[in-house]
Every structure is written in structure tokens, then in C-alpha cells.
Design goal:
Pfam families: Imm26. InterPro entries: Imm26 (IPR029278). With 162 residues, this protein is mainly beta. The protein has one domain (10-151). It has 3 helices and 10 strands. The chain has helices at 54-57, 70-75, 142-151; strands spanning 10-15, 20-30, 36-42, 46-47, 62-68, 80-84, 94-98, 112-116, 122-125, 135-136. The strands form 2 sheets. Strands 1, 2, 3, 4, 5 and 6 form a 6-stranded antiparallel sheet that branches. Strands 9-8-7-10 form a 4-stranded mixed sheet, with no helix packed on it. The radius of gyration is 16 Å and the shape is globular. It starts with 9 loop residues before the first strand and ends in an 11-residue tail after the last helix. The model has no long low-confidence stretch (mean pLDDT 92).
């Protein structure tokens, strides 16, 4: 039976194609975004035969951060639980969301909000400076997490910056 409870520090492995897998770690809960799980996805792609040490996995550079529901990904077999490490790295992650998502594809958003884990949304309007590097802050479905691991971008439409 698959593990159904997840906790901060848990490390997961996701096979992203027939030959490749990537790892990620559940690092925080974000009360600002529906109390969702925040994960950090590591950069290195491994062959499905490789079995790296947990301590080596968490030393890797971070590819991206995202909100998701780790339990749903487990239940739907998008990833597997590998182990737990208390070192969850940097949690000062900047996220963004748009207040005018209904206009996706028509114009760039000029109604952006940014926040860090557990902090209130801050309306910034047009994204400038470091805010342009903010991760999309919605709760991302497991299949879209896998898609980004494989392709470097999400498989859904989201407002542009400009």
C-alpha cells in the first residue's frame, strides 16, 4: 500500500520518461496559498537505474519551486516516497499570481501579486526587478509538475509579464 501521509523533509522520485527520473523535496506548508505543500525540485536528471544517496540529492541545485499536494501525486502514482531529510534548504521563495487571469492570452497581466511562504500577498501591479523571477504560485497538479520536470515549463497557459 502506498504511503498516504507526507511530512516536511520527505523526498520523492518521479520518473519523467522511460529512461529518466528526478527528485524533489517537500519543504514547507504555505498558509498563504491554501495551506498547500511547497516543494523544491532538484536540477539533476538521473537514469532510472541510478540510486543516489539522499544526502547527495538535497545538495543539488534547485530547478524550481512549486505548490502542490504531495499526497495526491503519491495516490495517483506520479511519484514515489524515497526518504526524509531534515535539511530543507532555503524557504525564502518568492511566488506570484495574477489578479486578471481571465484575460489569459489577450494581454500581459498588469495586476500581479507576490508573496513569500507564510506571508500575505502584496499587490505589485506590473512585475519588475526580482519579482520577474518569482515562481507561479498556484497549486500545481501532479501531471503539470512532471511536465515541467521534463520540459522546463508548465503545460498550461498563464499570463505574460508584458
Amino acid at each position: 500500500m502506498a504511503r498516504t501521509n507526507t511530512k516536511i523533509g520527505d523526498i520523492f522520485c518521479a520518473q519523467i520518461d522511460s529512461k529518466t527520473k528526478k527528485y524533489f523535496q517537500y519543504i514547507a506548508n504555505d498558509l498563504t496559498q491554501l495551506n498547500s505543500d511547497v516543494i523544491r525540485v532538484f536540477n539533476t536528471k538521473y537514469s532510472v537505474e541510478q540510486q543516489p544517496e539522499l544526502s547527495d540529492i538535497i545538495k543539488d541545485d534547485v530547478d524550481f519551486y512549486a505548490h502542490c499536494v504531495t499526497k495526491i501525486g503519491l495516490k495517483l502514482n506520479f511519484w514515489q516516497y524515497i526518504g526524509n531529510m531534515g535539511d530543507v534548504g532555503e524557504k525564502n521563495v518568492l511566488f506570484r499570481t495574477s489578479g486578471d487571469r481571465a484575460d489569459v492570452g489577450k494581454n500581459a497581466s498588469r495586476d500581479w501579486y507576490v508573496w513569500r511562504i507564510g506571508e500575505d500577498f502584496k499587490r505589485v501591479g506590473i512585475l519588475e526587478g526580482e519579482n520577474r523571477k518569482a515562481e507561479i504560485g498556484g497549486v500545481i497538479p501532479p501531471d503539470s509538475i512532471i511536465y515541467r520536470m521534463l520540459h522546463g515549463e508548465y503545460d498550461f497557459v498563464y499570463p505574460n509579464f508584458e
